[in-house]
């Protein structure tokens, strides 16, 4: 809404009392509604065109006549006339003389109550006239007038509780309308968006007084009041711009609507499960403080709920950055926390309460640097000084009456740092109140200048335009995706040669912004023919079979420029792609590793003569050398502007000159300097540096028991003299590799791009079959595998929700992804083998195997129950694993082993949507997204969480991660790191992220030139985690972690256990010989089993039941 129109008071003489009375008589006694309305408008024009103006409404007794007529129970005509006149005044006066707002809303209780009471009138025309007037008044008020004038009037009306319920509903509707007017919406002009933003900020600061008032109405005995109160509360809570609290609003509103110890406990539980990251402001405190108060001051609150409440209070307090807001709300909670400290029975709760009190004391401590809030009295002094300087007030009495109202509005603008609005707000109210015709604007400008200078003094001057820099983009835009507003009327300004880091939470819309720019869909961004923009990504899979040179030459942009093939070859050579028939330029695009694909994408961008590079996660799949090369490339090309999305904090630190950050309120905030400088300004952004679980918490399920493996250091997977050569490749990718893994392994596989790291992983997991050598694994071993291009797992299911995907993947009792492994795919030779008949020497001749239906321990291995084709089940035979393998049925045996392993892992997993939702929540994906959003609409980071959830569903013993740091933001990366640290199974990972590997891996396998060298146990850098002591290098505290004291050696940690394993022998897991037990032994066994069962009952949900066997120790 624009500033009110400034209209000078009419020059006509003041009307006589008789003239005014004649109009009033016409309004109140007219025989038709139209005649009454016409008389009302005539009276408005009579007063507006005179020198008296809005002051005549009081001096001629118009308000008192309206109140008398409105209260006349005997005459519906007079009551209708009163509302017609009030509607005309509300419509005409604020638009032409904004100072009249004070008379309508504040002076002598205002006229709002008169209009609201009329909503209960029996006559329809009276109610309609009243509603018309209320709507007209609302539409003419600025955000400041709504908050300073209308909102207090509504609060006063609702507080009385003596009026009719229709008036209460009307007041609540107006409050809801005000909150809805402040909501962010897709579309609209920039000016409209700014007005919404101002109203949202000003109204949000008043929530502390509004929420208790509306909550009281939620329990009103009148159904209509209760329903409207719920709607109004829903709109008020939408003013919160806090991503942490917003998802919990339905539970909090339900607890307000149906107050009980159960609903309050549920609300506290939901809040205790919330990781608070965003800055906590007045609106959030206004909403949450009542819940915390009720819990703290209720003597029957359970100790566990008290503990959660105190923890929530502490976490909220840490994020209150404004000491004035802390001093407003925390005194309400402090006595309650002190009571918990004094009376709590559990020492743990008392300790937490003491910690919370310390944090609260620190937050409320006096601070010399705190900028105190301004009030109307302070503003009045400045306004008086400016008015006196410009000739003084023409009507001192009216000036004195109006001054507090106007000064209160200016104080709101100053306190919310909206000082640029002051002149436009103030000038219209001074028209006719000061002596000189132009003085109202001069005074308003003077007051604004004073507060602009004060703002600069307190907070520093705003960033000035860059001298001598070339501006290439200055776009105002809004950005939405799938009906969700990501950015609202924000600005993006790019200078030539600058490198901008784009930072924000996962799912904030970083990649969406980049793709909108690349697709030419961002409003205000220069088109390609004006500013050449190139989106650099890794995906070159669509033409995987053509040569690199042909792939680049085929690019439409390069072809359009007419770039000769020789020039293309030269540029490729500069990027390391050697020319010639044997050179890298002749290789297939599909054969390139991630690092070379990035170089290829940059070469394409250079040939396209890009002015702006859009780099989306450029360091994904790059080794350390290539990352250094990319940093140097970007820094050296000062003619190119870059916009970079990356979760690699070191890379952003070394490259960026500016940071754009996704701010609250759907805005982009600009900060000069690199990521380090940004963190100094915004300490809460430290999560870009540390692997912390404070933001996103992942919780991996326990791996379960692996039969026959009683030691954490016993080998469960072994490769012996393995070589592998891709089809048509000139030489093997891996040659003569031997290694093994245990449940305690924490292995990082490192090496340059293209060295064979992913191939080694695929051999270990059974994705591919070795050309020579042997890969053995425990028959019951479950492996969770996340590929380098992790999204391959889900890109065939983009139409499903994550919940549906998991149900599809495991609906048959095993993991469907396993069926895609090469080791499980049947070749033509395998199919012929399946049709062969075999004779097992049982006198029934040669028969054909139909399937395997069972398995049991036999000697040091297993024997399998074979179902014969065409024979009844009673003729099934038991055949040993070794015999079946020798006969060529190893894939059938492997398939049965995988199915049994998966079935064992899924034995305690119920494939129900509710259980699956909890599983996704444990892995950092909001259940709302998991249940209702299609995978195709998720961000890259969210898709990776779906992949991780799928891999962890069947409780794997070994977690294999190929480039786990790709696609995940810093928050999620920290959560994944802590989950890996605390995981009770083995972990193998490929990652170029030294910070991630250093924090987790105690052992390294270095792959270079097809060979694997083992670097023994190293110390783990636990100081990479926020919850560890600084400088700590001890291994993780988990029981499964290798001991730090083991010496470095050329063998892996698993190899170090060769004394126990006899590494030269095949991988076997033998059972002990049975011996007859005595009665005493049997009794002791029964006790052990019972205790084990009790322990299992007390264990976390999802823990597999320990198997009762006869080989117990």
UniProtKB/TrEMBL annotation:
Basic residues: compositionally biased ranges: 1069-1080
Compartments, as annotated in UniProt: Cytoplasm
UniProtKB keywords: Amyloid, ATP-binding, Cytoplasm, Nucleotide-binding, Prion, Repeat
PROSITE patterns: ABC_TRANSPORTER_1 (PS00211), ABC_TRANSPORTER_2 (PS50893)
GO molecular function, one term: ATP hydrolysis activity
Every ABC transporter domain range: 470-689, 717-1034
Any single GO BP term: translation
GO CC terms of this entry: cytoplasm
UniProt-listed InterPro entries: AAA+_ATPase (IPR003593), ABC_transporter-like_ATP-bd (IPR003439), ABC_transporter-like_CS (IPR017871), ABCF (IPR050611), ARM-like (IPR011989), ARM-type_fold (IPR016024), Chromo-like_dom_sf (IPR016197), Chromo/chromo_shadow_dom (IPR000953)
Polar residues bias spans: 1030-1060
Region (Disordered): 1021-1113
Keyword Disulfide bond among record annotations: no
Signal peptide residue numbers: none
CDD domains linked to this entry: ABCF_EF-3, CD_eEF3
Entry similarity comment: Belongs to the ABC transporter superfamily. ABCF family. EF3 subfamily.
Subunit structure, interactors included: Component of the NuA4 histone acetyltransferase complex.
UniProt name for this protein: [NU+] prion formation protein 1
Native source species: Cytospora mali
């Amino acid at each position: 809404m624009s500033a009110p129109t400034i209209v000078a008071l009419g020059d006509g003489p003041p009307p006589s009392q008789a003239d005014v009375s004649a109009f009033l008589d016409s309004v109140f006694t007219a025989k038709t509604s139209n005649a009454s309305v016409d008389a009302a408008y005539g009276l408005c024009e009579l007063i507006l065109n005179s020198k008296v103006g809005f002051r005549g409404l009081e001096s001629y007794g118009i308000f008192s006549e309206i109140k008398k007529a409105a209260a006349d129970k005997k005459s519906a005509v007079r009551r209708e006339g009163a509302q017609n006149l009030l509607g005309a005044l509300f419509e005409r006066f604020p638009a032409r003389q904004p100072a009249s707002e004070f008379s309508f809303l504040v002076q002598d209780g205002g006229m709002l109550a008169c209009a609201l009471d009329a909503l209960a009138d029996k006559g329809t025309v009276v109610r309609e006239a009243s509603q018309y007037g209320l709507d007209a008044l609302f539409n003419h008020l600025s955000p400041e007038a709504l908050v300073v004038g209308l909102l207090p009037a509504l609060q006063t009306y609702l507080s009385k509780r003596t009026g009719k319920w229709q008036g209460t509903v009307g007041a609540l509707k107006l409050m809801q309308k005000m909150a809805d007017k402040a909501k962010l919406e897709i579309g609209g002009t920039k000016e409209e968006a700014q007005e919404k933003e101002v109203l949202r900020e000003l109204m949000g600061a008043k929530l502390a007084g509004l929420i208790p008032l509306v909550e009281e109405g939620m329990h009103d005995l009148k159904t209509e009041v209760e329903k409207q109160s719920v709607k109004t509360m829903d709109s008020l809570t939408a003013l919160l711009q806090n991503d942490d609290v917003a998802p919990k609003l339905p539970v909090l509103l339900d607890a307000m609507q149906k107050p009980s110890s159960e609903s309050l406990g549920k609300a506290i539980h939901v809040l205790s499960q919330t990781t608070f990251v965003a800055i906590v402001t007045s609106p959030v405190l206004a909403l949450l403080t009542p819940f915390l108060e009720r819990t703290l001051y209720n003597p029957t609150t359970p100790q566990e709920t008290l503990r959660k409440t105190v923890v929530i209070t502490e976490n909220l307090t840490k994020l209150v950055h404004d000491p004035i807001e802390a001093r407003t709300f925390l005194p309400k909670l402090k006595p309650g926390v002190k009571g918990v400290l004094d009376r709590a029975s559990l020492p743990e709760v008392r300790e937490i309460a003491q910690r919370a009190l310390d944090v609260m004391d620190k937050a409320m401590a006096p601070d010399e640097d705190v900028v105190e809030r301004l009030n109307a009295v302070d503003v009045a002094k400045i306004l008086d000084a400016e008015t006196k300087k410009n000739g003084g007030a023409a009507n001192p009495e009216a000036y004195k009456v109006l001054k507090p109202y106007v000064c209160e509005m200016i104080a709101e603008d100053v306190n919310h740092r909206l000082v640029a609005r002051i002149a436009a707000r103030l000038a219209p109210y001074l028209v006719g109140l000061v002596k000189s015709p132009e003085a109202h604007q001069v005074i308003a400008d003077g007051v604004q200048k004073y507060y602009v200078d004060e703002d600069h003094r307190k907070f520093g001057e705003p960033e000035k335009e860059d001298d001598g820099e070339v501006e290439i983009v200055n776009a105002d835009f809004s950005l939405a995706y799938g009906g969700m507003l990501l950015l609202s009327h924000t600005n993006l300004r790019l200078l030539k040669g600058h490198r901008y880091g784009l930072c924000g939470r996962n799912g904030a819309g970083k990649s969406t912004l980049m793709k909108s720019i690349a697709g030419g869909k961002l409003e205000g961004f220069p088109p390609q023919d004006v500013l050449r923009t190139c989106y650099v990504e890794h995906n070159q899979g669509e033409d995987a079979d053509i040569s690199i040179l042909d792939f680049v030459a085929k690019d439409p942009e390069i072809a359009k420029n007419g770039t000769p093939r020789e020039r293309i070859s030269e540029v490729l050579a500069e990027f390391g792609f050697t020319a010639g028939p044997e050179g890298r330029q002749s290789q297939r695009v599909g054969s390139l590793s991630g690092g070379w694909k990035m170089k290829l994408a940059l070469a394409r961008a250079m040939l396209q003569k890009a002015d702006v590079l859009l780099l989306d996660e450029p360091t994904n799949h790059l080794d350390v050398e290539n990352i250094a090369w990319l940093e140097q490339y970007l820094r050296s090309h000062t003619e190119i502007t870059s916009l970079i999305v990356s979760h690699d904090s070191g890379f952003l630190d070394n490259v960026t000159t500016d940071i754009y950050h996704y701010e609250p309120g759907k805005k982009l905030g600009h900060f000069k300097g690199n990521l380090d400088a940004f963190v100094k300004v915004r300490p809460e952004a430290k999560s870009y540096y540390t692997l912390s679980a404070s933001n996103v918490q992942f919780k991996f399920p326990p791996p379960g028991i692996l039969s026959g493996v009683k030691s954490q250091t016993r080998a469960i997977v072994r490769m012996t003299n393995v070589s592998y050569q891709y089809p048509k490749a000139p030489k093997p990718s891996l040659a003569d590799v031997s290694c093994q893994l245990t449940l305690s392994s924490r292995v990082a596989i490192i090496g340059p791009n293209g060295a064979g790291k992913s191939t080694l992983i695929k051999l270990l997991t059974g994705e591919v079959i070795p050309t020579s050598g042997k890969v053995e694994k425990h028959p019951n071993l479950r492996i969770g595998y996340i590929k380098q291009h992790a999204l391959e797992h889900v890109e065939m299911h983009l139409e499903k929700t994550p919940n549906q995907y998991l149900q599809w993947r495991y609906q048959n009792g095993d993991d469907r992804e396993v069926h895609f492994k090469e080791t499980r795919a049947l070749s033509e030779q395998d199919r012929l083998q399946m049709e062969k008949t075999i004779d097992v020497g049982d006198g029934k001749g040669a028969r054909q195997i139909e399937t395997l239906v069972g398995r049991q321990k036999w000697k040091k291995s297993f024997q399998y129950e074979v179902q014969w084709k065409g024979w009844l089940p009673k003729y099934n035979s038991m055949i040993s694993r070794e015999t079946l393998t020798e006969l060529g049925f190893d894939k059938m045996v492997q398939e049965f082993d995988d199915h049994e392993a998966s079935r064992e892992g899924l034995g305690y997993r119920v494939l129900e949507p509710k259980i699956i939702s909890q599983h996704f929540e444990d892995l950092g994906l909001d259940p709302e997204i998991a249940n209702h959003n299609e995978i195709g609409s998720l961000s890259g980071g969210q898709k990776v969480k779906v992949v991780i959830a799928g891999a962890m569903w069947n409780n794997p013993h070994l977690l294999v991660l190929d480039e786990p740091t790709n696609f995940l933001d810093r928050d999620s990366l920290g959560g994944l790191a802590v989950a890996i640290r605390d995981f009770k199974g083995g972990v193998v990972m490929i990652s170029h992220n030294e910070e991630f590997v250093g924090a987790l891996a105690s052992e390294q396998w270095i792959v270079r030139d097809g060979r694997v060298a083992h670097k023994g146990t190293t110390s783990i850098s636990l100081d990479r985690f926020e919850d560890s002591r600084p400088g700590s290098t001890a291994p993780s505290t988990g029981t499964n972690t290798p001991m730090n004291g083991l010496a470095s050696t050329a063998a892996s940690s698993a190899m170090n256990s060769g004394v126990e394993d006899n590494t030269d022998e095949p991988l076997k897991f033998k059972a002990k010989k049975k011996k007859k037990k005595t009665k005493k032994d049997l009794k002791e066994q029964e006790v052990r089993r019972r205790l084990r069962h009790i322990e299992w009952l007390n264990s976390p949900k999802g823990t597999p039941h320990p198997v009762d066997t006869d080989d117990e120790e």
